[in-house]
Write a structure and sequence with these properties.
- The chain is of the alpha/beta class.
- The protein is built from 12 helices and 8 strands.
- The chain has a single domain, classed as Alpha-Beta Barrel (TIM Barrel), CATH 3.20.20.70.
- It is globular.
- It starts with 5 loop residues before the first helix and ends with a helix.
Length: 260
């Protein structure tokens, strides 16, 4: 950034994308035995020490990875890290809202997963889902949480997300990641760029997540405007198995920095 003016550099730094580390897969490994290892609190601590801006969990009803005590344990950890954020994601019509009310995270991400769904694979449909989401968004706000809606990159839906009270949208990035892996990402990037701009124009902030990794993250952030946060779990844990949590987090922070 040496070529930027000081005011431009300060603005760019202020807009830099945050990294939230999703710990679901750490819990998946732990749950294969009854020994309590690897520890989610230890993993979260190492990620925060390395500079992660927050931690994400998705406590599904079947507890196949995150369990109720993990949510409480990680909330207690993050209480010791002022300025870092806890993001709890899940379907608000299942078990999510109890965690929101009891833990009061900084951010809650509403995801339209079915019971037992393998992984998140689509966003909310608006206006179809609007009426039933609106009171739950208000409930999360009453608990002090920012609300992000998990959405497909469809520009026409962004204004409605804002109209029902959402603060952010999290763009579901698997289609982009798949296109990038094929070497054909330009069309998908154009879709995400348009959707993000529509969200920003509607007064929403933009998050992104799903299958982002060290290969595809930088070009995504360099092209898609105004991304405030990325949530990354599976790929980051895969890298951490080879390099350690701290080195993996620093690599993702460097990938974010390289996009500016």
């Amino acid at each position: 950034m040496s070529g930027l003016s000081s005011s431009h550099a300060s603005h760019a730094a202020a807009q830099r994308c945050a990294l939230s580390v999703n710990l679901n897969k750490v819990a998946t490994v732990r749950n294969t035995r009854h020994l309590g290892i690897p520890s989610l609190v230890r993993a979260g601590t190492l990620c925060l020490q390395a500079g992660a801006h927050g931690l994400t969990v998705h406590p599904r009803p079947d507890e196949r990875h995150i369990r109720a005590h993990d949510v409480k344990d990680l909330a207690a950890l993050l209480a010791q890290w002022p300025g870092r954020e806890f993001n709890i994601e899940g379907n608000p019509f299942h078990n999510l809202m109890g965690f929101v009310d009891s833990v009061r995270p900084q951010q809650v991400t509403f995801v339209p997963d079915a019971q037992g769904q393998f992984t998140s694979d689509h966003g909310w449909r608006l206006p179809e889902d609007a009426e039933r989401l609106q009171p739950l968004i208000a409930q999360a706000h009453a608990a002090g949480a920012r609300v992000s809606l998990f959405m497909d990159p469809e520009p026409a839906q962004m204004a409605m997300a804002r109209a029902i009270g959402a603060d952010r949208v999290e763009l579901y990035t698997e289609p982009y990641a798949a296109a990038h892996a094929r070497g054909d990402a330009d069309n998908e990037l154009a879709r995400y760029r348009e959707a993000a701009q529509a969200a920003l124009d509607a007064g929403l902030a933009v998050n992104a997540g799903h299958d982002l990794n060290l290969d595809n993250l930088t070009p995504f952030l360099a092209t898609v405007p105004g991304v405030s946060e990325v949530s990354i779990g599976h790929a980051l844990l895969a890298d951490a198995l080879e390099t350690g949590y701290g080195a993996a987090v620093k690599a993702y922070l460097a990938a974010i920095a390289s996009s500016y």
